[in-house]
Amino acid sequence: MEEKRWSKTTSAARTLLVIVIFGTVGCAQHRQTELTDQHDLSITYEHIYELGEIKKYAVPLQDTPNVSRIPSLYLPLGDKSYLVKASSTVSGRTIITVRLPSDLVEPFENIRVLQHKTNELDPSGSDWFDCTMLPWGQDESGAVQYNEEMSVYFPNPRERKISCELYSAPLKPDEYFVIASKRGLPPNAPLTKFDVSLITEKERDGDIHRYQVSIKNVGDRAVAEVNFRSVFDIDTNLVSFKNRQGVCKRSSWGNSGGSLVCHIGGLAPGSSVKLELTGRPSGISGAVSPTATNKNWMIFGFFKERPNDPNFPVNSFEFKPLNATSSDDR
Q1: Which of 137, 159, 156 is nearest to 147 (CA)?
Q2: What gap in Å lies between CA 325 and CA 137, rounded to an integer?
Q3: How far apart are the C-alpha atoms of 241 and 250, rounded to whole Å?
Q4: DSSP-derived secondary structure for 137-174
Q5: What is the DSSP letter of 2?
Q6: CA torsion, points 75, 141, 97, 27, in degrees to nearest 10?
Q7: CA-based angle 231:227:284, to the nearest 5?
Q8: Which residue of 50, 139, 171, 243 is 20 to 30 Å from 90, comparing CA positions?
């Protein structure tokens, strides 16, 4: 293992682990093959809490986890993925850099690195994230995400290098990556439109609240999947739920006492799905109002034309059911 340390005079004060993989994209593989030192892997880090092994492998694409959910906008290049297995404990940024073969005919500007990650909002439990470090990358506020120091990891056609910042740090024991070509752009108009209606009932003892929600496809296009979360306000715990289509399960996302994730499958135009939930006060004041129960309850998610479509922002929906004009609070 080659150790390189950042100069303390640079602005790279944060922890950084960089794994550089050099290899071919299209080499046929029939089994998981370890990439040894002759494949020019180097590791650069500033701090490491526990030194262990970091190994990398070429894995046949058909043996890669959840390869069928690679987003529809991307076409994998070659017949393999990369697997990085780590027992080292690090923190901070983690960057994977791949050097592409010189005979690659795909336009360099289309090439991306995809990272496999867990995602409970996907029915399969995981999906693929475009983690490519690009000069026009932006955060939610619109600010430039990568400064001049990070520009060394931007796509470099001359050196045939492309880099990925991991979706989540630190490096997990098994991290999969796929080199792909981006073949399209996200849609700029929603596929269809969704609406919600709600009837709220309060039990006689004044403690349990029962909610019945209807989520309806009010547009003129069918969808292949509808995946969403229901997150109660912190003043309300989820007691029970009943779904009439698809699968719902408790979630640890957000308010773990009142969170639910649902995968309800497809919905034709004009069709709807119903969900029944019961809640009980948690004894904590609500995030919006200390007197209005469950006021900040939110339902939000995505609908897809194809199961392996990414979660396009234009195909998202968000409701606050207890602020809906159709709700009937008895």
Answers
A1: 137
A2: 39
A3: 9
A4: -B-TTS-BSS-GGGGGGS-BTTTTEEEEE-SSSS--SE
A5: -
A6: -10
A7: 5
A8: 139
Instruction: Provide the 8-state DSSP code for 23.
Output: -
**Dist. CA 93–CA 32, nearest whole Å:** 27
For 281-292, write each residue's pLDDT tens digit.
888 876 656 567
For the CA atoms of 232, 238, 241, 247, the dihedral, rounded to the nearest 10 degrees, stands at: 70
For residue 119, give both structure tokens: 């995602």
Helices (H) and strands (E) in the chain, counts: 0, 21
Q: In the structure encoding, which two tokens stand for residue 57, read together?
A: 């492998």
Q: Residue 318 in contact with residue 300, Cβ under 8 Å?
A: yes
> Which tokens in the block code for residue 174?
């098994």
Contact between 58 and 296 (Cβ < 8 Å): no
Angle 314-316-321 from CA coordinates, rounded to 5°: 140
Q: How far apart are CA 147 and CA 16, in angstroms?
A: 15
State pTM to two decimals: 0.81
Residue 143 structure tokens:
């600010």
- Give per-residue pLDDT as tens, 198-211: 887 777 667 888 99
For the residues of 88-141, what is the DSSP string, one character each? -B--SEEEEEEEPPTT--S-GGGEEEEEEEE-TTSTTSEEEEE-B--TT-B-TT
